[in-house]
């Protein structure tokens, strides 16, 4: 069987081809699955997708009509897939329920330290042989408070690093994590966490209940000199409201690896085109904001685990097995 993989990055391709070798043939495309590219999948029983692929009603209908019976998503998130439509079409859907939490947690800290210590500005200056320190002053994080919204595996890894810095820990989640509590984390209401934290990091999934979790009111509740980090999903933050607060001169730094309207932008080269997203265009102009292109997960370790799990999902599908990764089972 030959599998069609959409949205494959150059560094990712050899890992996918190596993992599937001896099992199934795989054709890797750098284009993302959407209404325009869905017809390419005609004749492929299994398609492999990424989080920025569009698997809405129209795309799934096109895939089903072309003979696709399984979608193997190479990510933990699946908010881009209409599961009800997939179930109605008797299409199996599987995801990667977990991979290295350290990849995302460590990158979240990379963003936090970069905006706190003005690393991008300093690097740009020294390339021009400007070695002044004006405007580069950061803050010690030791003794300050880190607020972790979402204390699952990634949030726990983030909290461990914060504990290593000697920070006080506040947490918010639907369930308390005993390991985080052993680190000294106190679970509090979201409003209190936002009001008391010097650093706020988001590690919750994007669901209807968490959409725009950080809205205008939440942003106003935060300290004026707080640091806000999002390496989870862009839709957790009301970006327009964030821009409004940034224009008021608030926040020491904001580090975003995700953006709520990133589909059609992230993972693509738009450097020679005019980007018509006014919110993003304004966001990247702020000197205290660092935006990266959804790369927190992008380590050899994490991507390797993602690919291996994706292969296992395909093998399970062919064998009629079901695992914790299955979102819509084989009918």
From TrEMBL:
Highest taxon in the source lineage: Bacteria
Enzyme class: oxidoreductase
Entry-linked Gene3D superfamilies: NAD(P)-binding Rossmann-like Domain (3.40.50.720)
Transmembrane segments: none
Pfam families associated with the record: 2-Hacid_dh, 2-Hacid_dh_C
One annotated GO molecular function: D-lactate dehydrogenase (NAD+) activity
Family: Belongs to the D-isomer specific 2-hydroxyacid dehydrogenase family.
Protein name stated in the entry: 2-hydroxyacid dehydrogenase
Source organism phylogeny: Bacteria, Bacillati, Actinomycetota, Actinomycetes, Kitasatosporales
